[in-house]
Amino acid sequence: MLTNVEGVILSTTPFGETSKIINVFTKEYGVIGIMCKGAMGIKSKLRSVTQNLTFGTFNIYYKKDKLSTLVSVDIINPLKRIKEDILLISYASYLSDLVYQVLKQSNDEEIYNDYINAILKLEEGLNPVVITNILEVKLLDYLGVGLNLTSCIMCGNKKEIVTLSSEKGGLICKNCYTMERIVPISIVKVLNMYYLVDIKSVSKLALKDDVINEINRFLTSYYDDYTGLYLKSKDFLKTIQKL
Ligand SMILES: [Zn+2]
What we know:
This protein has 2 domains: 2-77, CATH 2.40.50.140; 81-241, de novo design (two linked rop proteins) (Up-down Bundle). It is α+β, with helices and mostly antiparallel strands. It has 7 helices and 7 strands; from the N terminus they run E-E-E-E-E-H-H-H-H-E-E-H-H-H. The chain binds zinc ion.
């Protein structure tokens, strides 16, 4: 069936001498494999539009549960800012790796919208740490380890919360506190905002650096301890962020 799908190329694999297979996260069908015949050829029209992070409308012969075949691509947004900035490429690669893993566990269509909106916010120039963290918070539900930000993770107490512990995986009240690191409780509000906000509507970010960093630190270790995911692209970001 000849059809158009909107999507982003998550990864590419050479095939034979001049062809390649691209993995595209599509709005319509989730992640699909598409054969791009001759796309590695110097003169191929498909060469430049079959690279990682190409965001466009893919005209394909769609085959369910098999490799589809690419006819052409219309670019929706060239993502120029991201592609010219090695740091932004690193963030975008991590987000792509992350959604790819999440899609193995859930195929909710909101994942596509959240992912594409996060990529577009990176392209707009918003703080990549914040955008990454917002997507990370939202994806936790699909990974089955959503955050409880309303009561003590140990006893359920809603009052006298003293800290948020990545080790324990949530809020800790005064009675259950042992030796957990104390973080400013104001970050819980911000985390809640990350969880609820529509990424599309995020524009100005009036957040202090220490709040941003504290949340990033929490989410990074929460992901390490509770999601079971290991991503090389995340390791690279940790090195950059000195976590
Ligand atoms: Zn408690």
